[in-house]
Amino acid sequence: MTGQDQRVPTSAQQTAFSRDGVVCLRNVLAPCEIDHLRQAVARQIDGLRASPTGYDFEALSRQVWDADRPIDTGAADRFDMDRMKALVRSDVEARPLREEDPSDEMGLFFYDVAAWKHDRGVREVAFDSALPEIVSTLLDARYLNFWEDTTFVKAPHTRQKTAFHQDLAYFQIEGEQCVIVWIPLDPAGLENGVTQYVRGSHLWGQTFAPNVFVSQTPISTSTEIRCPDIEAAPELYNIVSFDVEPGDVIIHDVRTVHGAGGNRSDTWRRAMSFRYCGDRIRYRDRPGAIPQAGVAHDLRDGDRLFSADYPVVWPKPWPGLRLAEAFDTQTPTKGET
Ligand SMILES: O=C(O)CCC(=O)C(=O)O
Question: Which CATH number does 11-71+82-292 carry?
Answer without folding.
Answer: 2.60.120.620
